[in-house]
């Protein structure tokens, strides 16, 4: 992008900022932010070394939501997107598995997310920013199912 305007505002009016519009001689295709966000979330979860998407608060809300019978999984948890007419920018919040190279993980995330979005939507992905909020240890899972010991009876 050669302009200094944000991705979501270049060449768009207020009513179309949250959607991408692809125009051809046979009509136009509009892609909502939520679609791009969901594609990015699914692509990010496919990368080895990603334990979870989202920061602490969003993971807690997501875990509560998944326990509700009939509730669907939020594939765009931890994903923020800005979508313009021809371009998109993505921000990912993740928890990495312990032992994985974070630099390699970030590069893998960028490759997978860019490929998925560009292949499925035709939008050019200008950037994928990755924020690692935590590192998951296998020890964190142990004891989660065990009852707490009672010290006083």
UniProtKB/TrEMBL annotation:
Region named Disordered: 1-21
Coiled coil start-end: none
Position of the signal peptide: none
Organism superkingdom: Bacteria
Family of the protein in this entry: Belongs to the asp23 family.
The protein, known as: Stress protein, Gls24 family
């Amino acid at each position: 992008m050669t302009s200094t305007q944000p991705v979501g505002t270049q060449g768009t009016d207020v009513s179309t900022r949250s959607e991408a519009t692809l125009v051809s001689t046979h009509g136009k295709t509009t892609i909502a932010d939520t679609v791009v966000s969901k594609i990015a979330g699914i692509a990010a979860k496919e990368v080895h070394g990603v334990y979870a998407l989202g920061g602490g608060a969003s993971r807690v809300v997501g875990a509560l939501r998944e326990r509700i019978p009939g509730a669907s999984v939020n594939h765009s948890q931890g994903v923020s997107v800005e979508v313009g007419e021809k371009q998109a920018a993505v921000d990912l919040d993740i928890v990495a598995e312990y032992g994985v190279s974070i630099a390699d993980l970030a590069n893998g995330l960028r490759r997978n997310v860019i490929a998925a979005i560009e292949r499925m939507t035709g939008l050019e992905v200008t950037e994928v920013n990755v924020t690692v909020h935590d590192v998951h240890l296998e020890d964190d899972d142990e004891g989660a199912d065990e009852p707490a010991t009672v010290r006083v009876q």
